Structure formats: structure tokens, C-alpha cells
Amino acid sequence: MAVYTEVADEDLAAFLARYDVGALLSFKGIAEGVENTNFLVHTETGSYILTLYERRVDPADLPFFLGLMEHLSEKGITCPLPLQDRDGETLGRLCGRPAALLTFIEGVWVRRPQVEHCRALGTSLAAMHKAAMDYSGERKNGLSVNDWRPIFAAVADRADTLQAGLAAEMEAELTFLEANWPGDLPQGVIHADLFPDNVFFIGSRLSGLIDFYFACRDSLAYDIAVCLNAWCFEADMSFNATKARAMLNAYAARRALTTAEFDALPLLARGAAMRFFVTRLYDWLNHPPGAFVRPKDPLEYAKRIRFHRSVRTATEYGLD
Amino acid sequence: MAVYTEVADEDLAAFLARYDVGALLSFKGIAEGVENTNFLVHTETGSYILTLYERRVDPADLPFFLGLMEHLSEKGITCPLPLQDRDGETLGRLCGRPAALLTFIEGVWVRRPQVEHCRALGTSLAAMHKAAMDYSGERKNGLSVNDWRPIFAAVADRADTLQAGLAAEMEAELTFLEANWPGDLPQGVIHADLFPDNVFFIGSRLSGLIDFYFACRDSLAYDIAVCLNAWCFEADMSFNATKARAMLNAYAARRALTTAEFDALPLLARGAAMRFFVTRLYDWLNHPPGAFVRPKDPLEYAKRIRFHRSVRTATEYGLD
């Protein structure tokens, strides 16, 4: 939630001159995106997002992300489309950083998703998975089952300051997940971070998906599990089976789950919750005092893990 | 440079329904405005700025500011125009704060103003002063000559940590300004904060003035003095007489200065520099460590004060 890099008007005008977008009318740094610096740019031809990729993004991954958005756009998935400059390049440089100019997706993210939003999400997620099937880019999930323990280990000695017994509980959970993580589910390109703030709606119509900067190749059903956690729990951490039913069955109507995926869903949901638990716990215990960005509560994800532990079959999530 | 108040999609949609602007398409918190929270809003009818007024703005002043922008807009000065809701009100409430929806002014602010920008500024400043002549609103300048000493006094004991002798020098300067401040110059409504980031250009054309939240009734020539400081010094703090000449003579071509104003300009410039010196010094010595907003260097304004002390007549600024 910050502008990390200041961009001068002259530098931006020179950057934009490489694209066929007309003259610059205005640009505003926008207070979204924890990883990158984003500007909303108006030119004579419309609205665009200018993204400067900051240190937390590996430049080597950018062709995968930008290529994916181009691929999905071609397949009719509404997402930011990186513009090509006059040399046909989507990746440029501005103020010493890798930078891209992307189409602006209208829409607002829904703070309190309702059943119809979850249904629309399920449909779109399946459509995205199918559209990405023939994308040739390769990127490994850098935050999968074997990446969680090192992050947890770095702060485990202080985990009990949040809740007594938390370190031992999550240590055991990690051991269980590592031993039982399924490796043979249908693979594909997943978004991996499809929280409500990355899904735009105009009224009740889903208008686009954004922020593909965690996208990677992994089990498709893992992406469903991320969404289950991100969309189907209430503010008090109670599970909303009506929302989950709407999301899961809308997804399955577009892409049928295999028996193995159906069976694995509770475990994937535990793992998807663990992925956000460990990164949130790390940020919680490592954020500088007085920092502008307030870290998110990791215990919200500990509660989700406990809930999923009690689930025996995906039928309990409402999947038909 | 921050979003102080989070606004939920539902709350904004309800707020916008009171205006004739069509449906909400998107809104982004923008990383500008140290005082207030601003969103760039797209609706079916165009782009708008939504401003939530935070604690540093006195709600009692809002009718003056909003009325001034309406008045100036009617007179052909391009500035944000507060929209009237269906009840004819320009001031509403959102998320517990006073809020207004304003037209969006296209343009970018110029990081390194050139002579032509200074000339355009002079013309626009005079036009604004003349357009505001018959504005009936009243607001006293809360940061005028008698307001500087209390701000300075709160941090004077630490001023020498910035530069040896600074406290004594500025103490004497304040005494001089208080004793010699002119009270009988032509009065009017001034912007009082017309720095480059409040003046938009499209190419070399001045496209609008923004941020009237320091506007007040005071000596018109004081506003010129603020601009002289803000626009006519280089990064190394050297005075650029070419820029000043362009700005001052463009202003005078639109509104001739009286002899008293001409004579007072060096003194007003010292005072205008003192106004920003004391507030910057206060912020510099009081900002929380690790705070996101980096305070601006007060010594830049100490240097301006010293420069103006050496000026005997406005002719040295380039005024014909």
C-alpha cells in the first residue's frame, strides 16, 4: 500500500512515448499493491496501469507473468493486458526498475463478498484454469509445501507470543502436510493469490482478475483451496457453506474435478491456509515498529487450519 | 501521501447514489495529499476525485473551500468543482468523515518547472486573484505573521541541531518580520500553498489549479511571494531570476501591482519563506521515527530567507 518509487513527469512522458497511447494527461500513484508501485495513468486514448516492479519481484519471473496476462487476454479472460511498445516489447524500464504499461480494468473489489460473488468467482477461476492450459510459460510455485517450514522456522521461537501452544501445533501440522501432500493432481497455471482484492466487480458482474504476480504451475485444485479460504469465511472466522457451495459447484460446472481432487480438497485447504499462516506470521513478527503497512493477523489462518482439520470430505464444503 | 480512511465498496456506492454521476466503475486510493484521503473514482459519466477530510482540516472551514472552488469554476478558472448532490449540497459524509465529490482535473505537476511554466503560473495566479475578488466567503490566514512564532517556539530549543546558530538567527528574523509586516496591502482571496504539485499542466499548457485547503483572505502579494519561493529557486537553492521575471511580469500584465506591493515584495518573500520554514522545522523535529512520510528539509527555506534579506527592491527579482 505504497508508492515506493517516485516518477517524474518528464521520465513518464519519455516512457509513454514508446507506446501508441497518445499524450499523457495525468498520473496518480495508487495506494494498492504491497509488492510493486502502481500508477493510474490517463492518456488521450484511455486509462492504464503503470507498474514498476520493486525488489520483492524477481525480474526473471516477469516474462512469465506478462506472457500469462497476454495469453489469458487472448483467450477472452479479462485481466490487465501488458501493452507492447513500438519494438513489440511488454517489459520496459523506468526509474531504474523493470516497468510495464497495462490496460486498466474497471471494477471494484468487494469487501464483503456475497454468495453471488463467490459463484461468479468459481466460474471465472475455472475459465482461467482452462484458458491457461496451453500457456507454455514455466514457473514453479515458490510458496508450496516445502517452502513453508523454513519461513515458519525463522519465527517459530516467538510464535507462542501470539497464542500458547501455537508453535508445537503448527510444527505438527507442517509435518503432517509434508508427509501427505498430494503430488499427482491435475496440474496447470494457477493464480495462487486470488483474494477478493484481486477480483473486480461492476455491480454483481465479475469484471476482471488482476495481480498475477504469484502465478505459477501447480495443482489446479490448490487454487480452489486458496479461494475457499479467502472467500468463504466470515469476519468471525466461521465457515460459510452457502458461499463455498456456490463457488465450488460453479467451478465444477466449468471444469469437473477428478476423484483425486475431490478427495484431496480438505488437505489442500489446510495447506493453502498454512501458506498464508506462515507468511503472515513472519510479517507479523518482523514488521518494523511504526511501519505504514499494518500486518495481517496470522491467527485468522490458524483458525482456518483447525476448521479444515475437522473436515472429512469435500461434501462438507458443499461440493456436490 | 497516504490513505487514512479505508472506504468499502458498498459505502462508496451508497454515497455516489446521491449524485447524478451514474454507476461506480472503479476507485483507487491515491498516494497524494498529506492532509486528506483522496480517491480517484471512475463512474459511467467520467472521472472524479472523492476527498475525505481528515483531522487536520477544520470542518468549519469546508464551506469556504468548497464555495471558493465553485465560485472560481463559475468564473472560468479550472479547478476541482465540488458536485452538488440531489439536495444541492456539496458537503456530505462518508465513513464518519466530511466528504466531497469533485471533478477530476487532468494534468500532471511539473517536477522541474521551466520558464514557460512560471510564466503560465503568473498569468493563472493573477486570473485567480481577480476571479475571487467578489467571493463573499471569509477565512482568516491561520499561518500568517503572528502564527509563526508559536510554531517556532515549540521546537526552537532543538533548531541548532540542524545548524549552529539557527535558533538565534530565526528568532531575530521573526522579530523583524513582526515589527515590519505590512498590513495595508490590497487584500483578496489567496491560495497560500501554490507549489508546483498544486498546478497541473498538459504539455506546456496550464490545465488547472488544485488543493485550495489553505486558501484564505490575505494580502494578494503574499501569494506571489509564496510562488516566488516555490517556483523560482533551483535544487541547489540558487535564485533563478529568469523564472521570477517570467512569473512576476506575467502576473503584473494581468493585475498591476501597486507601489506598496512592489516595495513590500522582498519583505513578503522573507515572510513567505519563514511560514514554510517554521512548519517544516516543526515537522522535521516532530515526525515519528519510521514514519512513512519523510519530512521536507527546513533548511531549504532558511536559505531562501537569507537570499531575500539581501534583496533591496523587487527589481532584483526581475519585476519591470
Q: Describe the global form of chain A.
A: globular
What's the end-to-end separation of chain A, in Å? 39 Å
The CATH superfamily of the largest domain in chain A bears the name Aminoglycoside phosphotransferase (APH), C-terminal lobe
Helix content of chain A: 25-40%
Count of discrete domains of chain A: 2
- Give the CATH level 1 class of the largest domain in chain A: Alpha Beta
Estimate what percentage of residues of chain A fall within beta strands: 15-25%
Report the strand count of chain A: 10
Look at the structure and give the mean pLDDT of chain A.
Answer: 95
Q: What is the spatial order of strands in the main beta sheet of chain A?
A: 1-2-3-5-4
Tell me which oligomeric state these chains represent: homodimer
Largest interface: A-B, 38 and 37 residues
Give the low-confidence spans of chain A: none
Radius of gyration of chain A: 20 Å
CATH third-level topology of the largest domain in chain A: Aminoglycoside 3'-phosphotransferase, Chain: A, domain 2
CATH architecture of the largest domain in chain A, by name, is Alpha-Beta Complex
Quick one: biggest sheet of chain A? 5 strands, antiparallel
Secondary-structure element pattern of chain A, one letter each: HEEEHEEEHHHEEEEHHHH
Please give a structural write-up.
The structure is a homodimer of 320-residue chains. By secondary structure, chain A is α+β, with helices and mostly antiparallel strands. Chain A folds into 2 domains: 9-103, Phosphorylase Kinase, domain 1; 115-317, Aminoglycoside phosphotransferase (APH), C-terminal lobe (Aminoglycoside 3'-phosphotransferase, Chain: A, domain 2, Alpha-Beta Complex), CATH 3.90.1200. Chain A has helices at residues 9-16, 62-74, 115-131, 145-153, 166-180, 220-231, 241-254, 259-286, 299-309; strands at 24-30, 37-43, 46-52, 92-94, 97-103, 108-109, 187-190, 199-202, 205-209, 216-219. In chain A, the strands form 3 sheets. Chain A has a 5-stranded antiparallel β-sheet with strand order 1-2-3-5-4, covered by helices on one side. The first copy, chain A, is globular and about 60 Å long. At the A-B interface, helix 1, strand 1, strand 6 and strand 8 of A face helix 1, strand 1 and strand 6 of B.
